[in-house]
Structure formats: structure tokens, C-alpha cells
Amino acid sequence: QIDQRISMFFGSRWKMKSVTAAEAAALAAWRVLGSGDRVGALVFDDSDIAIVPPHRSEDRVMQILRQVVDRNHALHAGSQVIPGPQMLNQALKRVSALANHDCLVCLIGDGTGIDPDTRRHVTRLTEHNDVLSLIVYDPLEQALHDFGRLTFSDSVSQLEFNTGKKSLREAYQRDFRKRMERMEATSRQHSIPILKVHTAEPVLDQVRHELGNHVR
After folding, report:
1. Ranges assigned E (strand) in 102-179
2. Would the pLDDT of 81 be above 60?
3. Global pTM?
């Protein structure tokens, strides 16, 4: 089983998944505000959920982004935080209570924590709201090859990863496939558009491309 405690604190080429997710959140928030609508957010990690109530102002967008930045800064390779995949469902439950009608709910993350209960919460959300899901991933998750021993670092701590072990590569890729399959199954059931964004290219370019594919 793959340890998910730092699942967003990973990037093999250009940037971390956490940074990619933060850029996507900024893009979404400014776009909503630019269209004249109110914007709010629930920003969560393995242990806590921060609620930023909807408001139509630049200050509100900055409040959201500060919450995102604070959680990104808390990520590090030596983190002793206990993994909290259940936080996804807790956040969705809170969103369901807040987004009563005619809201656009944009879910941004890497799919960690998706389980049968997730579908129940999403079902409730889609009854009276539009839902869009943006999945963040790293190309190495999608196809982990045998590179031998690799060393990952956060500039302070280091972790050695033996990609030569076939069982480890298979477990790593299996975990990624399961997350994507769960998201795609939920998407099909509720007609939720999924935008897949990775860490190796600019977020804006990828979002434009993904939205273009959905329109077509």
C-alpha cells in the first residue's frame, strides 16, 4: 500500500502536485470573481478544514489563496502528520451543507480518499449544483519505469526509492489507476466533467485544452 501522507508533496519534473493544485485553485477563484460571482472555498489537509465563506471581492480570493499557501508550506518530507484520507469525505459533507442550490462546485485534488461514501456526498452535491472535478497527477504516477534507485528530496531530508523492484512499481501504478477509475466512475454516474492536469506543463494551457476537449 502506498503511504498517502505526502501524496500532494510530490513532483518528478517541474513542480509539486501541491503547487499545481494551488495554481488551479487560483485560476478558478479569479475566473469566478471575474465573471461577477461570489467565490468561497473549503481548503483541507490531513487533519483540518478551513472554510472561507463566499463573497464577491478580491480580498476573499486572497483569503482562499492564503489558506492554500499555508497548507502547502506545512508539507515536507519529514512530516509526522497521520494520513487522513477520510478528510475528503468530511470536506464534501461540509460543502453539501453550504452549497444548497445553483452553485458551481470545483473539486481540486489528486483523488486520495475516494471511497463508496464519496459517491453519496457527490450525489447530494449534484442534485442542485453543477460540479467540476480537476484531478492533479504527476507523470511518474502514471508510468513508473525502472530507473533503479532514485533519491527524492525536499532540500533537507532525502528518501531513497528503489524503482528496480517490480512489485513496488506495480503497487505504485495500481494505486494511481484505482484513484482514476474511482473518479471516472463517479464522473460517468453524475455527468461530472473531469479535467486531468499534471505537474509537467503550465496549468492554464492544460485547463484550456481539457475544457476544449469537453466542449467538443
Report:
1. 104-109, 130-137, 149-153, 158-162
2. no
3. 0.81
